[in-house]
Amino acid sequence: MGFVPISIDKYIKKHLDSNRSENEKDLRKRLNSALTDYKNGVKCSCGNDIWVIGSASVGNSCFTCITGESQPNNDCEIDSATVKSGNKKGQRHIDDIDPTKIAGFFDDDGNEINTDLIRKPGLCMTCVNDNDPNEELLCNMTRYDQKDDTDFKCFAYKKNNS
Ligand SMILES: [Zn+2]
Hints:
- The chain is mainly alpha-helical.
- Helices cover 33% and strands 7% of the residues.
- It contains six helices and two strands; from the N terminus they run E-H-H-H-H-E-H-H.
- A two-stranded parallel ribbon has the order 1-2.
- Helix 2 packs across helix 3.
- The protein is elongated, with a radius of gyration of 23 Å.
- The structure holds zinc ion.
- Zinc ion (ZN) binds next to helix 4.
């Protein structure tokens, strides 16, 4: 589920077809203004991204605050507002994830990091924290932070003597 992307021109035509009293110029102006706000990172008062189409009618707010529905269901959104800039293919963005289901960790842009793809340095194999589920998140963060470094350093390293 999610928004159905629609171009601004298509949406205006659709909207005008069902709202005969609407002024095309005025509608376009309000849509562009909401879209600009969206791209500038303007958020709803609740913290969510604004829903451009709804915001053009009622002022900047997110889909949930405007409609009372938790998720869009065949609702349209201007296409350029459905693509998150910098969102890498196959990665989930923190904003797209149900807040109660957020686990794992995210890079500075909010993209989820697949911990399976993080290289495990040889040092970790001899560490007491290796395979300790309580340490795994911290270990992965340490590894991820140094993924581009040639030397791996870890302050939590303790040699496993067993
Ligand atoms: Zn909201």
